[in-house]
Amino acid sequence: MKRTANAHWNGTLKDGKGELTTQSTTLNKTQYSFKTRFEEGVGTNPEELIAAAHAGCFTMAVGAALSQQGFTPGDLTTDAILDLDMAALSITGIHLELKASQIEGVSEEQFKTVAEEAKKNCIISKALSVPFTLNVTYGA
User: Fold this and answer.
1) For 12-43, what is each residue's pLDDT tens digit?
2) Cα separation of 88 and 70, whole Å?
3) Nearest to residue 66, comparing CAs of 125, 99, 120, 113?
4) What tens digit of pLDDT does each residue of 43-68 get?
5) How far apart are CA 118 and CA 61, in angstroms?
6) Distance CA 140, CA 138 (A)
7) How far apart are CA 68 and CA 14, in angstroms?
8) With CB atoms 3.0 to 4.6 Å apart as the test, which of 26, 49, 66, 91 could cross-link to 73 if both were Cys?
9) Which of 8, 26, 25 is nearest to 16 (CA)?
């Protein structure tokens, strides 16, 4: 299986602009620029997309693990906070903040164990070399 995306850029770093398109066309010539990446502008940026990918992958991995154990997951919501060191131009880590509704038959300890395993084993986690942290709010 292959997944594809396309980036187009025109111009200098500060004054140029680009567009991102994904195979699914969920992003279809979605704008990105210096302002959307390092300031405040309309559009997206690569770091935001990494955070979204990590949040999505991790949350699906938690749901999959619970399902494989015979449980029906309820609401699972993850915020991914990506830390970007502007001086070093480097991603220094990603913090995952998971909130989950109570699941019948699953204790808080069991749920946290599932979440920790998903943090280590989701496909996007495996692809990244930065440290990850996780906070879980269960049954809220």
Assistant:
1) 999 999 999 999 999 999 999 999 998 888 89
2) 45
3) 113
4) 999 999 999 999 999 999 999 999 99
5) 5
6) 6
7) 48
8) 66
9) 8
Tokens of 41: 């502008």
CA 89 to chain centroid, in Å, comes to 19
Q: Which residues pair with 18 in a beta bridge?
A: 9, 32
- Cα 120 to Cα 70, 114, 130: the distances in Å are 21, 10, 12
DSSP per-residue string spanning 74-89: --EEEEEEEEEETTTT
Does residue 116 surpass a pLDDT of 80? yes
The Cα angle at residue 88 between residues 84 and 10, in degrees rounded to 5 = 75
Say if CB 94 and CB 80 are below 8 A apart.
yes
In the three-class reduction of DSSP (H, G, I as helix; E, B as strand; rest coil), residue 77 is classed as: strand
Strand 132-138 vs strand 90-100: parallel, antiparallel, or unpaired?
A: parallel
